[in-house]
Specification:
The protein has 13 helices and three strands; from the N terminus they run αβααββαααααααααα. The chain is mostly helical and 225 residues long. It has two domains: 65 residues, Winged helix-like DNA-binding domain superfamily/Winged helix DNA-binding domain (Arc Repressor Mutant, subunit A, Orthogonal Bundle); 137 residues, Four Helix Bundle (Hemerythrin (Met), subunit A) (Up-down Bundle), CATH 1.20.120. A three-stranded antiparallel sheet has the order 1-3-2.
Length: 225
């Protein structure tokens, strides 16, 4: 456990405050990768009961900030979240390349499939089905880059997307961010239907930057610190 003192918390919204205290220590590296976060230790450090700490740890695990290890508790994942941000510019550049290659090959059937996927994402807004939303978002992008005609590029993009999954879990755990994603998808489909290639590539770049930008906005102090 870190040697610096834990912040004190008030008696209101204890679970939220415990969540923020633990989350910030994960993001800024005070809790090391691979380290176990013990419910009892955090409870004593914060001066609160174990109930709000348990709730906070469960929430952090659902968002990808912690791994839930059966019979052992919660562990900081092996790769720090902020280091995963370094993958997004790479992922974005390759996705734009795939999009440029794919644009002339996309069919009306592909566009219908993209709309169907986005409609399913809209249906799942606010349901808390984060994994479903991520799976659908991955499928949306796969429809595009699989039309690139470059299997090595397609495989590389699939691998990179799997590596940033934890940040995607964080992104799709918030209904407002989900709404931003499906709205970007809708604009992208409309640009494709209109044949505006420059707009398609610009929107694709913007869409790929969503998770990267939202995470940096929320945790700017911790990342820069």
């Amino acid at each position: 456990m870190p040697s610096s003192p834990w912040p004190s918390v008030s008696q209101s919204t204890l679970a939220d405050q415990a969540y923020e205290a633990i989350r910030d220590r994960i993001v800024n590296g005070e809790l090391s990768v691979g380290e176990f976060v013990r419910e009892q230790e955090v409870s004593e450090a914060l001066g609160v009961s174990r109930t709000p700490v348990r709730e906070a740890l469960g929430r952090l695990a659902s968002e990808g900030f912690l791994d839930r290890i059966p019979h052992r508790g919660f562990q900081v994942p092996e790769e720090a979240l902020n280091t995963l941000l370094e993958l997004y510019p790479i992922l974005s550049s390759l996705e734009i390349l795939a999009g440029r290659l794919a644009l002339s090959c996309l069919t009306d059937g592909d566009l219908r499939k993209l709309r169907e996927i986005n409609d399913r994402m809209i249906e799942r807004q606010g349901t808390g089905k984060v994994r479903d939303l991520i799976r659908l978002n991955d499928r949306f992008h796969q429809v595009i880059y699989q039309r690139s005609g470059n299997q090595r590029l397609s495989d590389l993009l699939t691998d990179l997307r799997s590596q940033v999954k934890r940040l995607e879990v964080w992104f799709y755990s918030d209904s407002e961010r989900v709404r931003d994603s499906v709205e970007h998808h809708e604009e992208l489909i409309q640009a494709m239907e209109g044949g505006d290639q420059d707009r398609v590539l610009a929107l694709l770049e913007d869409n790929m930057a969503l998770t990267y930008e939202r995470f940096r906005e929320e945790y700017a102090d911790e990342i820069e610190g």
